[in-house]
Automatic annotation (TrEMBL):
<feature type="binding site">
    <location>
        <position position="180"/>
    </location>
    <ligand>
        <name>Mg(2+)</name>
    </ligand>
</feature>
<dbReference type="Pfam" id="PF02424">
    <property type="entry name" value="ApbE"/>
</dbReference>
<protein>
    <recommendedName>
        <fullName>FAD:protein FMN transferase</fullName>
        <ecNumber>2.7.1.180</ecNumber>
    </recommendedName>
</protein>
<keyword id="KW-0808">Transferase</keyword>
<keyword id="KW-0285">Flavoprotein</keyword>
<dbReference type="InterPro" id="IPR024932">
    <property type="entry name" value="ApbE"/>
</dbReference>
<dbReference type="GO" id="GO:0046872">
    <property type="term" value="F:metal ion binding"/>
</dbReference>
<keyword id="KW-0274">FAD</keyword>
<comment type="similarity">
    <text>Belongs to the ApbE family.</text>
</comment>
<keyword id="KW-0460">Magnesium</keyword>
<feature type="binding site">
    <location>
        <position position="290"/>
    </location>
    <ligand>
        <name>Mg(2+)</name>
    </ligand>
</feature>
<keyword id="KW-0479">Metal-binding</keyword>
<dbReference type="GO" id="GO:0016740">
    <property type="term" value="F:transferase activity"/>
</dbReference>
<dbReference type="InterPro" id="IPR003374">
    <property type="entry name" value="ApbE-like_sf"/>
</dbReference>
<feature type="binding site">
    <location>
        <position position="294"/>
    </location>
    <ligand>
        <name>Mg(2+)</name>
    </ligand>
</feature>
Length: 334
């Protein structure tokens, strides 16, 4: 497999789920009321993860939650920027990685395909640029034009060589971050682990939302979509089943108090785009929703909407800097 030759279709295994089957999308079974609700919360990939599962046997549910968190832990062991022994850290340190985990190859294949689809707006090699902003913020300033230019010279997804046997970074000083896709992937593998234990109804919140089946007593999952400017307020409630949700917003981690410069950096300009304040995507998998919400935010409303509308069973909600909202036809907002 050579650069820009990908085994996936539009977004990897999005059509059937990462574990080889479709997430449950049928109508609510009439006997869900007897199921026990079990929840577990932990820390992973720099965020709080909460998983809620429904099953007739409490022990089965607890065992399934344990395995789901172990699956997420394996993702972190492979893809964390902050664990020096992770495969991603080794790749960034050495510029080369032999015998990569299949999961890392899978996520990078999806990321590189989205780089093509977004004309380079989504780029996992953005890490040097983000690091320049982070270093400058420690001095309570923004990076200088020279610092931005130097960092941008290290950012180019086309310089990632990927195969099942090895990954290499063509330019010295390049570094990757999977912060725009790994949380979604982790939510999906957690869903796979739950299904493998017989869980047919569950919600995984890793910052991105992955679902299995439907909640007890309801026909759909309902998730509040955060308002990008009003604390503890919602833009609305998404009511859905058979899809996953992810939001990218300028409020999540910002370098200026006016939200003009934040963690969502355009690799082409070296700065944060100024049109949107948040994008929420509904998609067949959490990995797809996670990556697309970032890509579309960077692409802007017009081009981002064009991309979303080309993809099957994918919709988006957009909020601009003036708090005006718009969404594609089938975005599930109530």
């Amino acid at each position: 497999m050579k650069r820009r030759q990908f085994v996936f279709g539009m977004f990897g295994a999005a059509a059937v789920g990462l574990c080889g089957y479709r997430y449950a999308t049928g109508p609510q079974a009439p006997n869900l009321a007897h199921l026990v609700k079990v929840s577990k919360t932990g820390q992973a990939l720099g965020t709080t993860v909460t998983i809620t599962a429904y099953h007739a046997d409490r022990k089965v549910a607890r065992d399934a939650l344990t395995e789901a968190f172990e699956a997420i832990e394996r993702v972190e062991q492979t893809m964390s920027l902050y664990r020096p022994d992770s495969q991603l850290s080794k790749l960034n340190r050495d510029g080369f990685l032999a015998n990569p985990q299949a999961s890392l190859v899978q996520v990078l294949e999806t990321a590189l395909h989205l780089s093509v689809q977004s004309n380079g707006a989504f780029d996992v090699s953005i890490q040097p640029l983000w690091a320049a902003y982070e270093a400058a913020s420690q001095q309570e300033r923004l990076p200088t034009p020279t610092e931005i230019k130097d960092a941008k010279n290290l950012v180019n997804w086309q310089n990632i060589e990927l195969s099942e046997e090895q990954i290499s970074l063509s330019n010295k000083g390049m570094a990757l971050t999977l912060n725009g896709i790994a949380q979604g992937y982790a939510a999906d593998v957690a869903a796979c682990a739950l299904k493998a234990h017989g869980i047919e109804h569950a919600l995984i919140d890793s910052g991105e939302i992955s679902t299995v089946g439907v909640p007890a007593h309801k026909d759909n999952w309902t998730i509040g979509i955060k308002h990008p400017r009003e604390e503890d307020a919602f833009l609305g409630v998404a009511s859905f089943k058979g899809r996953c949700l992810a939001t990218s917003g300028d409020y999540e981690s910002h370098f200026t108090d006016d939200y003009e410069q934040h963690h969502l950096l355009d690799p082409r300009s070296g700065r944060s785009p100024q049109e949107l304040s948040s994008v929420t995507v509904a998609a067949p998998t959490a990995m797809e929703a996670d990556a697309l919400s970032t890509a579309v935010f960077l692409m802007g409303l017009e081009k981002g909407k064009e991309l979303i509308e080309r993809l099957p069973n994918v919709d988006a909600l957009f909020v601009d800097k003036a708090n005006h909202t718009s969404h594609t036809t089938n975005f599930p907002i109530a």
